[in-house]
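Lecture 7 notes: from sequence to structure.
We start with the chain below.
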Amino acid sequence: MKKGIYAENEVNGKKHRIGMKHGEDKPEDEKEQDGDNIVRIKQYLSELNDLELQRLLQVSNQEHVKFHALQELKKRQNERERKYSRIRSEARSVIQGHKRISRLPEEAESGRIEGGTRNVEASCLIGRSKGTISQDTRQLKQSQELRLEEWARHEKIWFDHADIRKNWVRYDNGTSVEAEVYYFVETKTVRKVFHYDAVDYNCTPMDFIDNRISIHNALFSETKYKLVGVTKTKKGFAFVLEQPYIEGEKMTEKEIEEFMDSIGFPNHAGTYHWNDYYAVGDMHAGNILKSKDADDNMNVFVIDPIPRLNTLYNENIKYLPFNVI
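Predicted structure tokens for the same chain:
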């Protein structure tokens, strides 16, 4: 009479039918249960954000959970790298002139490129995002901010605001509602932590890139902005911009009017100036400096205006849907 693993009974008969040896494998129903558990674990992990997954890796004592959490993080990292590689390639084609962005007039698009590689990449990243009937401005802003933050962290251009305040030399007096200004003596530049929607709540990150960086650079190249990164302060999301440091004297209102007229802005109302194509606001004495060069020529530097396309007075001027062609 057979005994043990050779006994002719119901259990061993089942094991024999599925090709198992006693004690060496699990029944099929248990395998299925384990498979279902893995599916549930993967589904649960896929619903966690990266920070939550990293915390789980630190606190979990279940090796199989840690394994799948690590796999999920690696999968996301690979997906992001593929996505951002495409963004880098697209931006490089624009900068090299093989492609162009059809959003602003051609001369203004040159200002986008003058804003640096990161400015073009950020444009390609969020330029195609659009609001829907059910999506208000706040939701569109949040969506663009989240995409920019994820991209900046991946590309190592996310600045911790506490580190900025600790390690950079503050230059401004702290009264500006828009920007914190820091001076870099080695490069004779300033970096500005710019709260993009401080003046206009309806301004989106893409609006800021279009107007405050790209159009600014096209109109006032002597004080062009370069996008170097992004951060978040107590006030909210902010761009980190670099600009040449300018020393000079403030101009009078009459001098500002004469200067703007000389560069093709014949219309003005207070600090607001415009022509058929562009409108420039906030042109007060604090934003415009004059200084003489080595040849005693007077130069004017427009530091921090608020430019945009003149869609108000010219119906033929408009922001086109973002596209790279």
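Points to note: The longest helix spans residues 63-95. The first strand starts at residue 158 and ends at 159.
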